[in-house]
Amino acid sequence: MEIRALIVDALNSAERARSISPPKSVIEISALRWELYASLQNLLDALAMIVSDLRLRRPSSYADLGVVLYDAGLIDEETRENIKLIAVTRNILAHAYRRLGSEDLDRIVKDILSKVEDVAKNVEKLVSEKNIDPEPIPLTNIERIAKVFEKNNVILAYLYGSRARGTEREDSDYDIAVLFGKADVSVVDEIRLAMEIARELGVSSDKIDIVALDKADPLLKMRILREGVPIYERPQGFRTRWEREEYLEILRQMDLYEIYIGSRPRSTEQRKNRELEDH
Q1: Helix (H, G, I), strand (E, B) or coil at 2
Q2: Which residues contact 65 (CB under 8 A, 6 or more apart)?
Q3: Domains in the chain, ordered, with CATH?
Q4: Tens of pLDDT, residues 142-162
Q5: How many CA atoms lie within 13 A of 268 on its CB side?
């Protein structure tokens, strides 16, 4: 989904939430909770896409999206705090073990939805004013390397590590992450690609470190999204869609992990410590 479509969906859900608030039945309570969650989630996803498309620092939580945009000078302090409030509220709505009554949900409608609309207006303005898909930074001999990627059916490639940061030494490795776009990627595919790239660059094959994004874990993908420099994509425009989808999936996985950890039974000592904190 495109950013503008997500914003429209967020505002439509907010409007539907207002139409059934306060809820008068169990069914309306469930419907209201869902519309509130959908409104907040769609807006946060739109913000995550903007962060991804502008290649800003990608935080590991929705609550920090506003901080990143604020630090980049793209939003004001009030919008930053509103985004944080929206993210925290979204977390409360998302946790199934939390029982929210009609009064709780009605309060969210009255106190939070206006923040959603304010942030949505700022996001729409940001999307209109900014170039959401900046050109990738070229790598030396990129044309020759591109031919290697094309020959090996690579869809997407990033340079990361010291050479991407500009802190490399003469003998530094070339750390390259690639997406083959197939389920049966093997280490042999990585080795063959490394050897061909080494040949094109005129360096030793042990200086090329290839990692397949097809089988990479979320932490490595997050690192690539944060610091990777795109050096190849085919077809054009694929990278933006892929980065959006992966970043949103990583955020959801992190959120599920937090829910899992938060819902695990605590030891007696942990419960005592929590009780002391609450008091």
Answers
A1: coil
A2: 44, 47, 48, 51, 59, 83, 87
A3: 3-129 (1.20.120.580), 142-236 (3.30.460.10)
A4: 777 899 999 999 999 999 888
A5: 0
Cis peptide before 235 (omega within 30 of 0): yes
DSSP structure class, residue 141: T
User: Is residue 133 pLDDT above 80, yes or no?
Assistant: no
| Alpha carbons 21 and 19: distance in angstroms, whole number | 6
pLDDT band, very low/low/confident/very high, at 255 (cuts 50, 70, 90): low
How far apart, in whole angstroms, are the C-alpha atoms of residue 90 and residue 104?
A: 13
Q: ∠184-186-189 over CA atoms, to 5°?
A: 110
> And the tokens for 91?
């977390």
CA 21 to chain centre: 31
d(Cα 216, Cα 213) in Å, to the nearest integer?
Answer: 5
In total, the chain counts a number of residues equal to 279
Cα–Cα distance between 44 and 48 in angstroms, integer?
A: 6
End-to-end CA distance of the chain: 45
What confidence tens digit (pLDDT) does each residue in 179-191 have? 999 889 999 999 9
**The overall pTM is greater than 0.70:** no
β-pair partners for 110: none
DSSP collapsed to 3 states, 172-235 = CCEEEEEECCCCCCCHHHHHHHHHHHHHHHCCCHHHEEEEEHHHCCHHHHHHHHHHCEEEEECC
Q: What percentage of the chain has pLDDT greater than the value 90?
A: 43
H or E element that contains 157: strand 156-160
